[in-house]
Design goal:
This protein is mainly β. It is built from no helices and 22 strands. The strands form six sheets. Strands 8, 9, 10, 11, 12, 13 and 14 form a seven-stranded antiparallel beta sheet that branches. Strands 15, 16, 18, 19 and 21 form a five-stranded antiparallel beta sheet that branches. A four-stranded antiparallel beta sheet has the order 1-22-17-20, with no helix packed on it. The two termini are about 15 Å apart.
């Protein structure tokens, strides 16, 4: 990089996203114990065709019939698990041992339907038919794998990162077979696109959000007061599809920070304020073809250079997961390039 001085900052650990935006547990109606939509179209099969409106809390099984996810006012969707129990002609289906129809029974049987941000897995229980698998493709002996692969997911229905969200696909029980959560393209019951059955789905006001975390570096000393020019940020790591990494830089004439500490307002992006950052997303590629930058992601700090002449610096790195999966970027090494 010419005659400039180069400072390499080794983070020394894999940085992963560590802060959650929180569970989006919004009440679906006047019953705060559920975030399942209350739209009732009383679904049924008969010669008159599908109901006039879309039902948003019914699942379907060809043996049991309709499974009601709203009537008990207990079913709720959170970032990491489902709670409560649904109603059916075969009595309640418990989604979590902590919130079964008879209370917390985890000391007797520890089970729940879990979520990794939209993909469901784990087990529900019904006293008459036994275990219901939300398999998510796990290759266990109790999950159909080769002939009958399946998974259950919750997908943003209309706008990414905004409610509502729909359950899609199906779960499996060894006694009654497939349980369908959505008439769209299940292949195991009436398909709403073909008019073979009513327009049904299980809909929730929960929605998958991106998980966000950040890390502030230690304070670094360039040992050059008055004439330091900060040129660029380079980093090595990985950005899976849908994830992102951003940087902000703070500089000071004092090791204690511009105002005696290092505050949020001191970390700047291209505008010279904390309102923006130097952003990377999964569309960026490493400069592996460039012999100067080697394996790194690269961005120039550009002009005007708001950090000129400041001896001390810190960086803040933001990591963003994708919104519907547990994919997170990874930062292994950071390089702040500066010279005189």
């Amino acid at each position: 990089m010419g005659d400039t001085l180069l400072l390499m900052v080794l983070i020394g650990l894999v940085i992963t996203v560590g802060l959650l935006k929180g569970d989006n547990l919004a009440s679906a109606d006047e019953n705060p114990g559920t975030n399942i939509s209350p739209v009732d179209a009383s679904p049924y099969y008969d010669d008159t065709g599908p109901p006039e409106a879309t039902s948003t809390f019914w699942a379907w099984n060809e043996v049991i019939g309709w499974i009601d996810f709203h009537n008990t006012h207990t079913v709720n969707v959170r970032n990491k698990y489902l709670g409560g129990y649904s109603d059916s002609p075969f009595d309640e289906i418990s989604l979590n041992c902590e919130t079964s129809p008879v209370g917390n029974i985890c000391g007797v049987s520890d089970y729940k339907v879990e979520s990794d941000g939209g993909n469901l897995f784990g087990w529900a229980w019904n006293d008459l038919i036994g275990w219901i698998s939300f398999c998510n493709g796990q290759g266990t002996s109790t999950c159909p794998t080769t002939s009958f692969p399946f998974q259950t997911r919750i997908e943003n229905a209309i706008v990414p990162d905004q409610p509502p969200s729909d359950f899609v696909d199906y779960a499996w029980n060894d006694v009654v077979g497939w349980i369908s959560f959505n008439c769209e393209g299940t292949g195991h019951s009436g398909d709403c696109a073909t008019g073979l059955g009513p327009d049904y789905r299980v809909r929730t006001k929960w929605f998958a959000t991106s998980t966000v975390g950040y890390l502030d570096s230690a304070t670094f000393d360039t040992l050059i007061p008055g004439s330091v020019k900060y040129n660029s940020i380079l980093w090595d790591g990985a950005m899976p599809a849908g994830t992102g990494v951003s940087f902000q830089l703070a500089t000071s004439d004092s090791p204690d920070g511009p105002g005696g500490d290092w505050s949020k307002e001191d970390f700047w992006g291209p505008s010279g304020t904390d309102a923006d950052s130097y952003d990377f997303n999964s569309g960026h590629t490493k400069a592996s073809q460039d012999k100067e930058y080697g394996r790194y992601f690269f961005t120039s700090l550009g002009d005007p250079n708001y950090h000129f002449g400041k001896r001390y610096f810190r960086y803040r790195v933001w990591l963003f997961s994708n919104s519907n999966s547990p994919l997170s970027p990874r930062v292994d090494e950071v390089i702040i390039n500066w010279g005189i």
